[in-house]
Amino acid sequence: MNLASKIKTQREQVGMSQSELAQKLHVTRQTVSRWENDQTIPNLDTLNDISDELDISLDELLKNDNLKTIGSISKDVKLKKSYKLWFILSSSFI
Predict the structure, then answer these.
(1) What is the C-alpha to C-alpha distance for residues 52 and 16, in angstroms, rounded to an integer?
(2) HEC assignment per residue over the chain
(3) Under a CB-based contact definition with an 8 Å cutoff, are residues 51 and 61 in contact?
(4) pTM for the whole thing?
(5) Domain HTH cro/C1-type spans what residues (predicted)?
(6) Residue in 45, 50, 41, 48 with CA at minimum distance from that of residue 16
(7) Which domains, and CATH codes, for the chain?
(8) Are 70 and 62 in contact (CB under 8 A)?
(9) Percent of the chain with pLDDT over 70
(10) At what angle do helices 29-36 and 18-25 cross, to 10 degrees?
(11) Distance separating alpha carbons of residues 23 and 49, to the nearest angstrom
(12) What pLDDT does residue 27 have?
């Protein structure tokens, strides 16, 4: 089962609608729908919030998923690090 299916299945098991989950995560219902339809992947911070709200561990959410999800999260983390470094270097020159 992939991440999208796990989010949808777990959300339904706890009896929560897409709108309710979206409200708790401070995103739109359409965003939740895109996650569940495997069109986009939540970032790492949001995955952590999803695991809390749906009472499922991050390990369970990501286990046995394809490498696309993990690669995307890894890319997101690397991008944040490079933005942080760029900001620090830019601030130093100013």
Answers:
(1) 13
(2) CCHHHHHHHHHHHCCCCHHHHHHHHCCCHHHHHHHHCCCCCCCHHHHHHHHHHCCCCHHHHHCCCCHHHHHHHHHHHHHHHHHHHHHHHHHHHC
(3) yes
(4) 0.70
(5) 7-61
(6) 50
(7) 3-93 (1.10.260.40)
(8) yes
(9) 85
(10) 110
(11) 12
(12) 97
Q: Are 48 and 2 in contact (CB under 8 A)?
A: no
- Residue 28's identity, in one-letter code, is T
Give the integer Cα–Cα distance in Å for 88 and 78.
Answer: 15
Token reading at 16: 């929560």
Q: At what angle do helices 67-93 and 44-53 cross, to 10 degrees?
A: 130
Determine the pLDDT at residue 80: 72
- pLDDT tens digits for range 18-35: 999 999 999 999 999 999
The answer to whether 62 and 90 have CB atoms below 8 angstroms apart is no
Q: How far apart are CA 9 and CA 76, in angstroms?
A: 25
